[in-house]
Every structure is written in structure tokens, then in C-alpha cells.
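Give me C-alpha cells for this 430-residue protein.
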Amino acid sequence: MPDVYNWQIGRTMAYPFAAAPAKWQFAFVFNTNRCINCQTCTMACRSTWTFSKGQENIWWNNVETKPFGGYPQNWDSKLLALLEEYNPGGQLWDPVTGKSPEAPYGRFEGKTIFEAAAGYAGAEGPKVALGYIPTAEEWASPNIFEDHARPEARPPSAVKHMTATLPEHKVWFFYLARLCNHCTFPGCLAACPRQAIYKRPEDGVVLIDQSRCNGYQKCVEACPYKKAIFRPNTGASEKCVACYPRLEGRDPELSPNGEPCETRCMTACVGKIRMQGLVRIEEDGAWAKDPQNPIFYLVRERQVALPLYPQFGAEPNGFYIPPRWVPRPYLIQMFGPGVGHAIEQYSCPDRELLAVLQLFRTAQQIIFRFEIQPGPKIAEIEVTMPDGSSRAQAIFNDTVIGYNKFDKEAVRITIEEPTFERPAIHPNSI
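Here you go.
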């Protein structure tokens, strides 16, 4: 296998194909602190893409309740267990060695799904990526264990005295919204024997050529996030297409001049947890430095949004702001060693970060650049930090402006959101 550089694990790794960077990369940031599990994103996707016969158990977008939920069930814990089996005690991070702008989380010393597969020996022959094919029962319940909390281990007599206060809750769960991560090194693409899966050079979207797919389900087995799904009535696999007509600016209502727009799941988000964008990629595969791009700013500049299971090695392009109240070891396993830094920043955002956070779900057109206009100080509050200490946070009523691909203003919003009081003559809407 050729060696490719994976910035999320801080080193080169083995991958079946040489790196072939896209010019732009579809990427997104989800703020788990805001998700209310309304499933509006799920139904927006379903009503657009997966409403047909044979797609009854296909959900390109879903929202899971962690730590117990999953679609398919236990998809992450099963793969983590497989990796541990093939590299016992070795799936560890070194968050210090090699840490740099090119390796922001340090170095992952364990084996990726591609490297672990090199030592696989089974009746079905060699594998390109370590994985498994879920059973029909595991696909059947996308909302299983919804809202099931996990208490810390303690005597039953102590349960009634448990509290739910920051920095960490003693009883906790959180919602994890998921879709295809359109990885830089997709497991599905690597494993397809028909070369039916490809990554678009213009935006990095990963697609399946339905005319070439023979339904071997190697993509289903190899995708570490289980977002390639087999459709039985067509005998082919399907996956999220990132609503690519919208990325191409072909929505007649939202893109009158060809402006790229966000996907259906993004634009439907009620909790305003989602921000989608396109980041420019250099010829060597690195993200082009562009701190005025909100995705680059949150992921690379401030490192407040982290990849999901970066240790799998696929270099996913979906990133998450971790929930503040969840025990840190669980979050580190899920998002890597950058969790502490990310939560500290999010707990008490500085003036610039607070402004950028206001851009979530404020425009349907993709924001390529932002600028901030200073405003007056309007408040000062006391914030509880992750270590239990308190910090004073000054809040300014700045205005943040987002610009589309053609550098035209797409949104303008202030930190202090406007409020409207209904006239007495219309006390309610009935």
C-alpha cells in the first residue's frame, strides 16, 4: 500500500491508493451542545433521498443517543473492539510527540483500520480495511436506546443524590447527529472491488456509481462509520450524496446566480447545531490556510471542532464541538486528545469565537468568508470552566457578516439577537 499523510493522526499511514486531493473539500461542523434530537434533519434527508421502496431501513442522516444508541447498533464499539483485538493495548495517542499545525492532536501510535487489516487472517480471505457487515437486526432500530442516560458507577443508595451540574454530569447522555463524513481516505472506496466508488475532484464528495456496483457490500463492511448501506431490491449500495446539486449551485430558488448552498439536513436544523462549508485544498492535500473561512477557523485555527474517531484513519471531514457535560475519557475515545482544549474554548469563547458561533444555521448559502464589526459591551457573566473554576466573560454586541462564494453578503447577525413583543391586541396566534 502507498503511504499517505493523515493530519488527524499526525503521521503517514498505509492506504490502498496514492493521495489524490480534491480542489475543494465538503466539510461540516456540528455543535453537540445544541442538538435537541428533534430529528428534523433526519426527516428532511428522508423526504428528499430515501423515501422509496427498498430504502425502509436506509437512513443517510440519523441522530443517535450516546453512549448506548447507534445506527447500526453498536457500530462504533464493535469496531473499537476489533481494533483492540488486532492491536492489544496499542491503540494509544501521544498528544505531545509531533504536535504541530500539521498534526494538531499529536500522534496516534495505534493501528488504523487499513493497517490492522494487514494482519487479518480469516476464512473469507484478506481485507483492505478491518470491518464487519451488520446484521439485519442491527439496522432495524435507528432510534434504539433514545434518551437512555448513563450514571457513574456508585451504590444504588447514592443515585437519588446525583446531581447534573457542570463541568461534568454524573448522569449523562448526548445526541450525536451523523451522516457520511466524505472522508479524505474513505474505507468504502478503498474496499470496493468494482471501483464503483469515487471522490469528486471538485468538492471531495464520495459517490457510488450505481451502474458499476454489484452489491458485494465490501463498502458496507469497510466503512468505519457504517454510512454505506445495501439496498436489497436494487442489489446495490447507496450512501449520502451531500446534496451535490446544491453544492453546485443548481437550486433555482436558493442559487439564482449559481451560489453553492447547504444540504437539506443542514438547512432544516431547528437547533442551529450545523454549519457546512467548502475548504480549499492544496496540491499536497493539506487544507489551504484560510482563517476567514468559518470551517477552517473552527477546525484548524481554533481546534474547537474535532473529527469523529480520527484513530480509524479515514480522515473524516465531519467535525464536532464536544458536549461539555460528558466524562472526558469517553469523549477522548470518540474525538481524540483535543477534547480538553476544545471544551475549554467553547465554555468561555472569546470575542471572535463567540461571533463565529453565531453563524450556525443563519444562511442557506454556504459561507466562504466572514468578517466581524465591533460593537459595544453589553454584558459580563461568570462562567464555570471545565476544571470547576470560574471566569468572567465580557460580551460585546458585535456584528458578524458571512459572504458566499462570489463574496456577496449572505447573512448579517448581531451577538444580541433581536426580540419582538407581540402587541396587546394580538396576545397569541389563536
